[in-house]
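User: Show me a protein chain along with its predicted structure.
Assistant: Here is one chain, sequence first, then structure tokens.
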Amino acid sequence: MKSYYLIAAVAVVAFVALGASSFLNSMTPYVTTFAEARAAKQDKVQVPGDIVKGKTTYDKKAAALVFYIKDPDGEEMKVSYRGVRPGNFDQADRVVAIGRYGNGEFKAEQLLVKCPSKYQAER
């Protein structure tokens, strides 16, 4: 009977360890300046910024979006994203890019588009 308790205890500890490990891997730090994003080396971070209008290109064939964002200090950073262009990207003023900085650009794995019209009251 005691061997069942031992097996159950080991299984519970293994599931708790697996859950904690998965939770820690899913956490992504939120940085506010591009200097912090560059300092994170190859760690995944979330970087917010204002979209710089007129500096956006999208290649439909390659599904590659390249644009620039500006941080509160006024510094611009190039962001490259592979995937479907967000539907409301053209109307958005701000974006949160989730990914890694490397080779002079931020390589986004996800984009969270902040569309101001969604949060404004109807007139």
